Amino acid sequence: MSPAYNNDGCDQKGDDVLPDFLDDHDDGFEPPPDILGDSVELKTPMVPSDSSDNENHSRETTGPRSFIGRLASSTRAKVLASAVGIFLVGVGGAVLDRSSSSSPDPSQGKASTFKMPKITTPALKQNTGAIFHVTPIETAPQKAPEVKAINEEETVPLETFHPLKNKREVVEKYSKVPGLSHTEVAKAYDAVSDALKWIKSDKKLLKKLKKHDIELGNPEFYLAIAIKESALDPKAGEDRKYKGYFQLRMRPDDPDENKTAVKKKPPEKDRSPLKDIEQFFDINFGNKELLQPRENAISGILYYHLCRDRYLGHDIPEADKDLSTYFSYNVGQGAFMNIWDSLGATSYEDFEIKLSKLLADKAPDKIKYNDHPYEDKTYGISYRVHLELIDSTGDLGSIVIGGSEYDVGKLFRAMRYARTIDSLAHDDPDENFANK
Predict the structure, then answer these.
(1) What's the CA gap between 122 and 372, in Å, rounded?
(2) Is the full-model pTM beyond 0.70?
């Protein structure tokens, strides 16, 4: 990212469904005993008595030695009777209901009647009374909801950084930052949103992101970085080395821009984020893309995650990765890790405290250690810091940490830079802050 600073001195499942009365039985259904006992009386339509065949038939169907009676006296008959009872209960439910509530239709002849036994079997104990409704057994079971198989290559990284806001909410939030208009925020939101859609549309790219446990954020999150970097000016740094929304360093001697350039000295080593993005994600952007809003946002988002999830790796606690990335985004990953290791930091807060004390000891006449809330009127926010600037004139000097020399002022500003972005991403700016 650009080392350029703002004028504030800071850088920027489903089982089959069974009838209710089967729920308590592990093996499905246990027939109720004696369901056709003494309380059951069957009456069939009578036939003329002057027919001998009919007399025989009458004797076969009535009296204590009837066919049903003889069968009922045997053991097997009980099983059959139970089955018949179940059939009568299940299939004849509707007939029972009509016979209990209305008179027979004369046009249909004399209707058969059925006296319902009192049910005491555990399977039916929840249905009491003379007449009740039972769902027919042959009713088809309900189908479990279909579960769509997950295609690994189509899996989109989860957006889990921060609660998702819609465009209107994000525009309203960031337009409260002094100097930012609704139009500027809306255009920047569209660029970042389009960049995220572009990234998610590339299956190979998504596979790489998943492989390295990279989870994408949402527009609100990335816009906080762009506000600090460029004040949402897509042409910021047009004539300088760092360009666009995310102030990404351009590539040296870009063939797209300088095909006929005569090289009078050894080519400058490519230290730009575009080189890292090309090597790691196989996305080849040149300097021209840096001034195109969507491409600049694509590069900024991917480079941020290279810093956060690749370069910092597992050395930094997950809860501290965002703040650590903001800091390293500003001073470089190598510098950040060297200072972190040299200080023996256990968290970003611990890192900040130890570094602040070290810097205060180095330049006691310019800065002092003071844990206090800092009111950043440039962005309409406030956050806690550990250093207070007591003399803004002159150079703050340099300091050696872990064998490397660093500019005290740059480290001071990098801590403010990280806290600014973190506060913008999580808090709502106060548009009247500067007047308070």
Answers:
(1) 73
(2) no
